[in-house]
Design brief:
Radius of gyration of chain B: 16 Å
Distance between the termini of chain B: 15 Å
CATH architecture of chain A: Alpha-Beta Barrel
Strand order of the largest sheet of chain A: 1-4-5-6-7-10-11-12
Largest sheet of chain A: 8 strands, parallel, barrel
Shape of chain B: globular
CATH topology of chain B: Rossmann fold
Number of helices of chain B: 7
Number of helices of chain A: 10
CATH superfamily of chain A: Aldolase class I
Largest interface: A-B, 33 and 37 residues
Distance between the termini of chain A: 16 Å
CATH architecture of chain B: 3-Layer(aba) Sandwich
Number of domains of chain A: 1
Helix content of chain B: 25-40%
CATH class of chain B: Alpha Beta
Radius of gyration of chain A: 17 Å
CATH superfamily of chain B: Class I glutamine amidotransferase (GATase) domain
Mean pLDDT of chain A: 90
CATH topology of chain A: TIM Barrel
Oligomer: heterodimer
CATH class of chain A: Alpha Beta
Structural class of chain B: alpha/beta
Low-confidence stretches of chain B: none
Number of domains of chain B: 1
Structural class of chain A: alpha/beta
Helix content of chain A: 25-40%
Mean pLDDT of chain B: 94
Strand content of chain B: 25-35%
Strand order of the largest sheet of chain B: 2-1-3-4-12-11-10-7-8
Number of strands of chain B: 12
Strand content of chain A: 25-35%
Order of helices and strands of chain A: EEEHEHEHEHHEEEHEHEHEHH
Largest sheet of chain B: 9 strands, mixed
Low-confidence stretches of chain A: 20-28
Shape of chain A: globular
Chain lengths: ~260, ~210
């Protein structure tokens, strides 16, 4: 049986690992490749690097980190952040990434995901959706909806996140990395309503992200949210929770998990 | 020398580094001469079936690979490199595979899988049930986990299946025909079990 995945995420700036709270207040904590080796040993199912470097001049430090990571760990590696051209994808895949995560460029250029999927295969194209809760007025009264944000959560797009996820599936995304901006950094749990809504609407795997604060949040993400994978950054990064401990907990609760 | 066949597709670096981590060396090449002279071949592959086959033909290495296999030399196909060993497939119906194993490559049935709450692609860690003894499984427990990412799977029409995996249906995830072996999963991404499997291939004395 296919197992649910636990994915630690490393936020990377200028080739170094950081973790922001609500996308600000960064704390420096080490080398990406070294961190990846630790997660590999602890039984992570995949790893995600998210490059939050603002300028492109430090891009080579990310490529270097990807290369060194791919040389040392033999598990799937997804790299996102700053992907604007097909050549950016080629460079990352060549450096050893297995998948790339596309966010802002998917919105700015409607054909980008389609082209990337056609050229490199849907299996390596992850579309990252940063979604923020809005109250929408409908005929039946107020209902909840989510809006897609780009540029690291700084710019609203007016696009409905649920519709967007379906559009991206049709464009050729192989997976969706779904982050709740409201929950990111709060440790109050994944946005289960958002996750459930999107996992219900698309036929590709969905990674829940943003808000994991304890082991139960992962359980909720998988069971109530229907997520195929749950991602967390600071929780693992600052050793508040070990992957082994989390996996044992989920297994005991009956979730299909690859044992460590 | 182990040659990783380069036909312009896939993450060849990961395969090369995985082989290096188990103490062997390999070269990435699309030179028919290097392929003919290799001790062992690794055929990786990511992407679409049609593109891979078209590239193999465009690079002029189809014959070299076929002749290598005809001589009984050891080969491992990975993911699309496994699918290409068959006669053809649903993904690109007009494109012929290498045809070294009888059967075709089929797509997972969306409706059938959706009814079971399963997504396409089949992405993540799943178990391999070892149906037959093989050097490839040496030191690897039955039902060990490996990393998969694919939407198509081989449906052999001859007795080559040595491992199966359950994803809505039981599909063939490992095949062996004489000295040719192949896996639908990615051993180079399957941590300890994957490295052991690659090491079994590298150390195989056909």
């Amino acid at each position: 049986m296919l197992t649910k995945r636990i994915i630690p995420c490393l936020d990377i700036k200028d080739g170094r690992v950081v973790k922001g709270v609500k996308f600000v207040a960064l704390r420096d904590a080490g080398d990406p490749a070294d961190n990846a080796v630790v997660y590999d040993r602890e039984g992570a199912d995949e790893i995600v690097f998210l490059d939050i470097t603002a300028s492109s001049e430090h891009r080579s430090t990310l490529i270097d980190a990807v290369e060194r990571t791919a040389d040392a760990v033999f598990m799937p590696l997804t790299v996102g952040g700053g992907i604007n051209e097909l050549d950016d994808i080629k460079t990352l895949l060549r450096a050893g990434a297995d998948k790339v995560s596309i966010n802002t460029q998917a919105v700015l250029n409607p054909d980008f995901v389609k082209q990337a999927s056609y050229r490199f295969g849907a299996q390596c194209i992850v579309v990252a959706i940063d979604a923020k809760r809005i109250s929408a007025s409908t005929e039946g009264g107020k209902s909840v909806a989510w809006e897609v944000y780009i540029y690291g959560g700084r710019k609203a797009t007016g696009i409905d996140a649920v519709e967007w996820s379906q559009q991206m599936e049709h464009a050729g995304a192989g997976e969706i990395l779904l982050t709740s901006i409201d929950r990111d950094g709060t440790k109050s749990g994944y946005d289960i309503e958002l996750t459930a809504e999107i996992t219900k609407r698309v036929g590709i795997p969905v990674i829940a992200s943003g808000g994991a604060g304890n082991m139960e949040h992962f359980y909720e993400g998988f069971v109530r949210g229907g997520a195929d994978a749950c991602l967390a950054a600071s929780l693992f990064h600052f050793r508040e929770l070990s992957i082994k401990e989390l996996k044992t907990y989920l297994q005991n609760k009956g979730v299909a998990i690859r044992p460590v | 020398m182990i040659v990783i066949v380069d036909y312009g597709m896939g993450n060849l670096r990961s395969v090369e580094k995985a082989i290096a981590s188990i103490g062997a060396s390999s070269v990435i090449s699309n030179d028919p001469d290097a392929i003919s002279k290799a001790d062992k071949l690794v055929i990786p592959g990511v992407g679409a079936f049609g593109d891979c086959m078209n590239n193999i033909r465009a690079y002029g290495i189809e014959d070299a690979v076929k002749q290598f296999i005809a001589k009984g030399r050891p080969v491992i196909g990975i993911c699309l490199g496994m699918q290409m060993l068959f006669e053809g497939g649903d993904e690109n119906p007009g494109v012929k595979g290498l045809g070294l194993m009888k059967g075709s490559v089929k797509g997972f049935d969306h409706e059938q899988l959706a009814g079971k709450g399963l997504k396409i692609p089949h992405m993540g860690w799943n178990t391999v049930k070892q149906g037959k003894k093989s050097f490839l499984f040496e030191g690897i427990k039955d039902k060990s986990y490996f990393y998969f990412v694919h939407s198509y799977y081989p449906a052999p029409l001859e007795d080559v299946t040595i491992g199966t995996t359950d994803y809505g249906i039981d599909f063939t995830s490992v095949v062996q025909k004489d000295n040719v072996v192949a896996t639908q999963f990615h051993p180079e991404k399957s941590q300890k079990n994957g490295l052991r499997l690659l090491s079994n291939f590298i150390n195989y004395r056909g």
